[in-house]
């Protein structure tokens, strides 16, 4: 199991799993996880309205805050919670607590408090990484992850200062892309050893952050540079990632590798669109690239890491079962349908792809529960 876990999420997640082994459910972490899940539900509900469906909307914040609720409320809370668990210091839990509270405020329509809380969460996460850098170890992988947290905080400050969500999209993308890239670089550094394994991806990650910064004074050039960095990072990580080896192994390693390699394809697609189109006008290319990176890349990575990260965070077992391939296949099929609608100008395809994408996310939760029950029945 430890060898499999290493192929999925890196050594720190494996260490967290071992640290939590034999202990009960981490009840005190449940409220923060609940905040993340409520943010996800609100974001998905709001997305139905953005897709043009006539559904009742309890709060206007569900639709207006869809992007921040997904990127910062849901994913930001999960990422900062995992970092707090890895650091094992009580003060670090302020980051996921602030992110969860900010997400709930945003969903409730409390725009200003929501922006402030979510931005404060990003700043606290930067402090968590600084504590790791100064107290434990340094390395290019950790510096890339720290840069991701800085992107969250910088984008949040711009948002608080009055910038629109579209204007801070490169910062939100940089936060998630650099955080995930840093995790994968950690494993690549161990698996391949030496600076040559990480030099190229680190340079590509620097382009992503530089593009986000450049998007403030020069939006078109900044989006193109961010796209270049994402496309380069996708190619370099796909070549360096241990997933190229574990895809030939059975069980969890193959499933996780399929998630990772498919995610890199979507990151390359998103980067290529931004590189070619520059800052979009909010039309089809914008929607296509946005969901290629935030759903195709990020959520595919979440699917692949969940069987290791969830036990580390909540001390609950999430065993692998082939049924987990169902939501993964649906996620990527729905994205193909959505991008076909975006790029061809057929709204019906876009709507169908968007709805199926939401079903894929919900189906993953259902399949995770089903996997645990199926394996209990199959166990001797």
3D architecture notes:
With 380 residues, the chain is mainly alpha-helical. Helices cover 80% and strands 0% of the residues. It has helices spanning 2-9, 11-20, 30-50, 61-64, 66-87, 94-107, 111-135, 140-160, 169-192, 196-214, 219-240, 243-246, 252-277, 284-314, 325-344, 347-378. The longest helix is centred in the last third of the chain and has 32 residues, at 347-378. It is globular and about 45 Å long. The model is unreliable at 1-22 (pLDDT under 50).
Task: Sum this structure up briefly.
This protein has helices spanning 2-9, 11-20, 30-50, 61-64, 66-87, 94-107, 111-135, 140-160, 169-192, 196-214, 219-240, 243-246, 252-277, 284-314, 325-344, 347-378. The two termini are 19 Å apart. Mean pLDDT is 86; it is low at 1-22.
């Amino acid at each position: 199991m430890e060898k499999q876990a290493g192929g999925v999420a890196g050594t720190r997640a494996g260490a967290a799993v071992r640290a939590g082994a034999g202990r009960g459910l981490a009840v005190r972490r449940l409220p923060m996880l609940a905040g993340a899940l409520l943010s996800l539900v609100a974001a998905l509900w709001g997305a139905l309205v953005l897709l043009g469906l006539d559904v009742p909307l309890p709060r206007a914040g569900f639709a207006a805050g869809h992007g921040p609720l997904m990127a910062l409320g849901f994913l930001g809370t999960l990422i900062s919670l995992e970092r707090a668990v890895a650091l094992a210091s009580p003060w670090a839990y302020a980051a996921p607590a602030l992110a969860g509270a900010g997400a709930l405020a945003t969903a409730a329509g409390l725009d200003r408090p929501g922006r402030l809380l979510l931005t404060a969460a990003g700043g606290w996460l930067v402090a968590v990484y600084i504590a790791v850098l100064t107290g434990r170890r340094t390395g290019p992988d950790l510096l890339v992850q720290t840069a991701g947290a800085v992107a969250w905080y910088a984008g949040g400050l711009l948002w608080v200062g009055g910038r629109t969500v579209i204007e801070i999209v490169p910062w939100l993308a940089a936060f998630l892309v650099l955080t995930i890239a840093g995790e994968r670089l950690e494993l690549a550094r161990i698996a391949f050893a030496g600076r040559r394994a990480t030099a190229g991806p680190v340079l590509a990650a620097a382009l992503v952050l530089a593009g986000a910064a450049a998007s403030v004074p020069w939006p078109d050039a900044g989006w193109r540079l961010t796209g270049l960095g994402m496309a380069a990072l996708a190619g370099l990580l796909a070549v360096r990632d241990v997933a190229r080896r574990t895809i030939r192994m059975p069980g969890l390693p193959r499933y996780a590798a399929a998630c990772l390699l498919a995610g890199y394809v979507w990151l390359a697609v998103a980067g290529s669109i931004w590189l070619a189109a520059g800052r979009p006008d909010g039309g089809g290319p914008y929607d296509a690239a946005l969901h290629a990176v935030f759903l195709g890349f990020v959520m595919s990575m979440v699917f692949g890491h969940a069987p290791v990260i969830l036990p580390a965070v909540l001390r609950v077992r999430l065993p692998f079962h082939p049924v987990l391939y169902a939501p993964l296949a649906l996620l990527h099929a729905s994205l193909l349908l959505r991008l076909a609608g975006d790029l061809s100008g057929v709204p019906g395809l876009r709507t169908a792809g968007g709805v199926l994408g939401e079903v894929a996310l919900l189906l993953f939760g259902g399949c995770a529960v089903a996997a645990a029950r199926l394996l209990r029945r199959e166990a001797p």
